[in-house]
Amino acid sequence: MRVALFTETFLPKVDGIVTRLRHTVDHLQRLGDQVLIFAPEGGLTEHKGARIYGVSGFPLPLYPELKLALPRPAIGEELSQFKPDLIHVVNPAILGLAGLYYSKTLDIPLVASYHTHLPEYLQHYGLGALEGLLWELLKAGHNQAHLNLCTSTAMIEALTQHGIERVDLWQRGVDTETFQPHLASVDMRNRLSQGHPEAPLLLYVGRLSAEKEIDRIKPVLESIPNARLALVGDGPNRQSLEKHFENTPTHFVGYLGGRELASAFASADAFVFPSRTETLGLVLLEAMAAGCPVVAARSGGIPDIVEDGVNGYLFDPHDERGAIAATQRLLFEQEARETLRRNARREAERWSWSSATRQLQSYYREVVAEQSLSSVA
């Protein structure tokens, strides 16, 4: 099958959406499909055999890491040459509008997928009054698709409640070969804790942005004697977070990838994740695959991954002391912590990228077959 993939974000950017897409493209190509990627220009022209058509754009004012790439006629020319069997639009926003348009004008089956819970983000950028309008725009875009995929049951429910139709689940996936418990390292622990490897080590990995609510980790850190915190990643909120965590034992590590990132997960005592806006929380699966016990907000797609008291701890996101109590329990009950580690790894092993991509292929085939039948009728 020939698939044209439109995405508002791709390599070299690093985030959960890009992680899912790069593994998906890799496995689609391995399984014999051909993928053409339309994405904001990032200097790359190919990924795992799939060609990348970079579209020039400009930084998003509130989030300079993201580029807005505007549709242009040349995209239609590329599509005409590629002759896709299906168009898949990821988070249709600006560039994705081209995917919606050409799906309709060229009569190509359309799949859309929802990965970023934008209506929830608005609250964190002082734009909460626009939430209703944004849902209407999302509904208008997604309801043009033959199928809308979400990455958690919570997001299926949210989209359905707001009038988005033909919604189904795209199962989670994680790279269990890269993220493994045996990669725990004294050197990495020393690096993350800035020379205090004996201290309790809390870890956060992800974007440093307002909607991740990383500032809420500070009371957790302060409640645990001698604890250290490592924040892995970067983003638009780094400067304000550096000020917020000033005079605390917090290390801003910056980006890590590959084996280094896997070692960071495996070397920490607890992965603390306070975000309430996650459609899935892929980074939680990576932590679990590495055997790092998770403490996370009971919100969004997170309960699809973390079973409280079995493979991690969940806390009420509205309870200011919830994260503190859960993290203290995790750190102070060593035997329970080791059980959580084992169970977390076992859960992660259930979800391979190969399996998730085969499921996606099945969805693609169903949509193309339905379109062919309707055309004949």
Describe the structure.
There is one protein chain. The protein has helices spanning 16-30, 73-82, 96-105, 118-124, 131-142, 153-161, 186-192, 218-223, 238-244, 258-267, 282-289, 322-332, 334-348, 353-376, and strands spanning 2-7, 34-40, 46-47, 50-55, 57-60, 63-69, 86-90, 110-114, 147-150, 167-169, 201-205, 228-232, 250-254, 270-273, 294-297, 313-315. The protein is α/β, with parallel strands linked by helices and 377 residues long. The chain folds into two domains: 2-173 and 352-376, Glycogen Phosphorylase B (Rossmann fold, 3-Layer(aba) Sandwich), CATH 3.40.50; 181-348, 3-Layer(aba) Sandwich (Rossmann fold), CATH 3.40.50.2000. An eight-stranded mixed beta sheet has the order 3-4-2-1-7-8-9-10, sandwiched between helices. The chain has a six-stranded parallel beta sheet with strand order 13-12-11-14-15-16, sandwiched between helices. It has a two-stranded antiparallel sheet with strand order 5-6. Helix 4 packs antiparallel against helix 5 (131-142), helix 7 crosses helix 10 (258-267) and helix 11 (282-289) crosses helix 13 (334-348). The radius of gyration is 21 Å and the shape is globular. The mean pLDDT is 92.
How many runs of DSSP E, i.e. beta strands?
16
The fourth-level CATH homologous superfamily of the largest domain is Glycogen Phosphorylase B
Could you report the average pLDDT, rounded to the nearest whole number?
92
Quickly count the helices. Answer: 14
Helix content: 40-55%
Give the amount of beta strand, in percent: 15-25%
H/E order of the elements?
EHEEEEEHEHEHHEHEHEHEHEHEHEEHHH
- Give the structural class: alpha/beta
Low-pLDDT segments, ≥5 res: none
CATH architecture term of the largest domain: 3-Layer(aba) Sandwich
Shape, principal axes of CA atoms: globular
Overall domain count: 2
Q: What would the CATH topology of the largest domain be? A: Rossmann fold
